[in-house]
Amino acid sequence: TRLWRGVIEEYRDRLPVSGTTPVVTLREGGTPLVPAPWLSEQTGCEVHLKVEGVNPTGSFKDRGMTLAISKAAEDGAEAVVCASTGNTSASMAAYAVRAGMRPVVLVPDGKVAGPKLAQAVVHGGVIASVDGNFDDCLRLARELSEEYAVALVNSVNPYRLAGQKTAAFEVADDLGDAPDVHVLPVGNAGNISAYWMGYSEYAADAVTTRRPAMWGFQAAGAAPLVHGVPVDAPETVASAIRIGNPASWELAISARDDSGGLIDAVTDEQILAAQQELSGREGLFVEPASAAGVAGLLHYARTGLLDRGRRIVVTVTGHGLKDVDTASSYYGEIRPYAIAADASAAAQALGLSR
Ligand code: F0G
């Protein structure tokens, strides 16, 4: 087997880098496309999961960050800033320290899962807890980057989307063509836009014969693209996608319409149920936001809105260990059997037969 070199080296000819761009990489990407037998049975379709939680910092953000930080390094940036619901800040901090830059992180106060903040801390991030939501943080990050010596690496930075489009290349490379439908969660709307760019590029160059319908799912309490207007006070258990005014609004709407796809909402209950089914049936632990696509797919299948026999890829965007508290509270208190270190007592308590 060949060693995976990270998305910039793997797809260099399709990315805006030159021979002199310093490549800052943790060998992100090359993530597994895992067949999903239970979801396939439930939907009557051939379902695969693109498991992005195995990236170096545990989410898909690393794909865009390797490029954004490499380009910032090329420009001589000494500090970088982002607004984040958690994963972008974890990724930015990791790549920034590798490049010798100072990571400046703006997060909505009290609304980021602990492990994500811990990642930003261990990577030396300077963290500001903002009295406001993600949308306020993003406005602040833009203002800081305009007036101070700090480069903005949110997905309004075009290098982020360019890096993230490599996920679509990988899916098409693995399957031999684009799928019929690509499903994913939507928050700030960068990822759905990036996948669409990737699929469109491959189709335009005849690497693939077609482009998939893009199906995006937002949380019901944070579904501005579904309602067509920004949401002032977004709320959802899926804190990663608690966003009321997505930066890539127009790009996401184009991806939906040009692909003949849809953007719809799923409830927090549907999201948590899908997270539990992914863990309990497919063996994949993802964070709540990452289950929104699966929740949407199941909802469409169960209400008869999904044609059978289709080839479907669902991106699960971040690892379950990113937000253990939400999962634990949904499953109830963790209470293992307390037993003596004795085999027959253990077998009895654990219900094992001879
Ligand atoms: N899933 C996870 C786990 C995320 O962290 C995000 C976004 C999304 C889905 C939505 O992707 O924004 O491209 O539509 N997280 C950003 C962050 C906002 O700050 O980490 P999107």
Automatic annotation (TrEMBL):
<dbReference type="InterPro" id="IPR000634">
    <property type="entry name" value="Ser/Thr_deHydtase_PyrdxlP-BS"/>
</dbReference>
<dbReference type="GO" id="GO:0003941">
    <property type="term" value="F:L-serine ammonia-lyase activity"/>
</dbReference>
<feature type="binding site">
    <location>
        <position position="317"/>
    </location>
    <ligand>
        <name>pyridoxal 5'-phosphate</name>
    </ligand>
</feature>
<dbReference type="InterPro" id="IPR026260">
    <property type="entry name" value="Thr_Synthase_bac/arc"/>
</dbReference>
<keyword id="KW-0791">Threonine biosynthesis</keyword>
<keyword id="KW-0663">Pyridoxal phosphate</keyword>
<dbReference type="GO" id="GO:0009097">
    <property type="term" value="P:isoleucine biosynthetic process"/>
</dbReference>
<dbReference type="GO" id="GO:0004794">
    <property type="term" value="F:threonine deaminase activity"/>
</dbReference>
<dbReference type="InterPro" id="IPR036052">
    <property type="entry name" value="TrpB-like_PALP_sf"/>
</dbReference>
<dbReference type="GO" id="GO:0006567">
    <property type="term" value="P:L-threonine catabolic process"/>
</dbReference>
<keyword id="KW-0028">Amino-acid biosynthesis</keyword>
<keyword id="KW-0456">Lyase</keyword>
<comment type="function">
    <text>Catalyzes the gamma-elimination of phosphate from L-phosphohomoserine and the beta-addition of water to produce L-threonine.</text>
</comment>
<comment type="pathway">
    <text>Amino-acid biosynthesis; L-threonine biosynthesis; L-threonine from L-aspartate: step 5/5.</text>
</comment>
<feature type="modified residue" description="N6-(pyridoxal phosphate)lysine">
    <location>
        <position position="61"/>
    </location>
</feature>
<dbReference type="GO" id="GO:0004795">
    <property type="term" value="F:threonine synthase activity"/>
</dbReference>
<dbReference type="InterPro" id="IPR050147">
    <property type="entry name" value="Ser/Thr_Dehydratase"/>
</dbReference>
<dbReference type="GO" id="GO:0009088">
    <property type="term" value="P:threonine biosynthetic process"/>
</dbReference>
<dbReference type="GO" id="GO:0006565">
    <property type="term" value="P:L-serine catabolic process"/>
</dbReference>
<dbReference type="InterPro" id="IPR004450">
    <property type="entry name" value="Thr_synthase-like"/>
</dbReference>
<dbReference type="GO" id="GO:0030170">
    <property type="term" value="F:pyridoxal phosphate binding"/>
</dbReference>
<comment type="similarity">
    <text>Belongs to the threonine synthase family.</text>
</comment>
<protein>
    <recommendedName>
        <fullName>Threonine synthase</fullName>
        <ecNumber>4.2.3.1</ecNumber>
    </recommendedName>
</protein>
<dbReference type="Pfam" id="PF00291">
    <property type="entry name" value="PALP"/>
</dbReference>
<feature type="binding site">
    <location>
        <position position="87"/>
    </location>
    <ligand>
        <name>pyridoxal 5'-phosphate</name>
    </ligand>
</feature>
<feature type="binding site">
    <location>
        <begin position="187"/>
        <end position="191"/>
    </location>
    <ligand>
        <name>pyridoxal 5'-phosphate</name>
    </ligand>
</feature>
<dbReference type="InterPro" id="IPR001926">
    <property type="entry name" value="TrpB-like_PALP"/>
</dbReference>
<feature type="domain" description="Tryptophan synthase beta chain-like PALP">
    <location>
        <begin position="24"/>
        <end position="318"/>
    </location>
</feature>
